[in-house]
Design goal:
single chain, alpha+beta, 7-stranded antiparallel beta sheet, two-stranded antiparallel ribbon, 2 helices, 9 strands, globular, DUF1684, transmembrane helix, transmembrane
């Protein structure tokens, strides 16, 4: 399975800092404006932290770190933060997922997610990781054009499931390491995880 452990560590640190900053900053602005501004600042801070890690960490897929100027992203758009209905599957179901290297790996299918984007009904299958988190790989109409052809990913948390629903923020979707370095092998989203919409949000080529 594709791993990104070091990103999760500094993401937690950044989130704590941003939450504190947002609370203080919001005292001087109308609620709606402050919410929008603070959300954008949170996403930008996460992007900057990831760029710094990719430039310095030994696990980074970036080979030419000296000339690395940062990843590319679509503009932040809160419209692509949606609430999905979660239909949990029978525990222990597994699906063979193709890898970019040609082999396959078994993933535990956790639930089906249904939601609406751009007026279209969408569905994705989310997987459970050995660490107990949720892994959401997908492709959309930007794949192989503006984004990596093999798809993009999102990491979700079990504790974010509320009343059989979960928030999905596509602004946080990212490309796997194999998009930047062919020596990495990453899972390819199953055919059923194709969205017939152009998600011009999150990380891009």
């Amino acid at each position: 399975m594709f791993k990104n452990k070091f990103f999760l560590v500094f993401t937690s640190v950044i989130l704590v800092a941003i939450i504190i900053y947002s609370f203080v900053d919001s005292q001087e602005k109308p609620a709606t404006e402050a919410l929008s501004d603070n959300y954008a600042k949170t996403v930008l801070a996460l992007r900057q932290a990831k760029d710094e890690a990719l430039k310095t960490e030994k696990d980074s897929p970036i080979e030419d770190k000296k000339n690395f100027k940062g990843l590319h992203y679509f503009a932040i758009n809160p419209v692509y933060k949606v609430v999905a209905t979660l239909d949990k599957l029978t525990s222990g179901q597994s699906i063979k997922v193709a890898m970019t290297g040609g082999e396959t790996e078994e993933y535990e299918a956790f639930a089906n997610l249904t939601f609406e984007i751009d007026g279209k009904k969408c569905a994705l299958k989310v997987f459970k990781t050995p660490e107990g988190n949720l892994f959401l790989p997908f492709r959309d109409l930007t794949s192989n054009k503006e984004t990596y052809g093999a798809g993009r990913y999102l990491d979700l948390k079990m504790e974010d499931i509320k009343d059989q629903s979960i928030e999905i923020d596509f602004n946080l979707c990212y490309q796997p390491y194999c998009a930047y370095n062919p020596s990495f092998t990453c899972p390819v989203p199953p055919a059923e995880n194709f969205l017939n919409v152009a998600l011009k949000v999150g990380e891009k080529m």
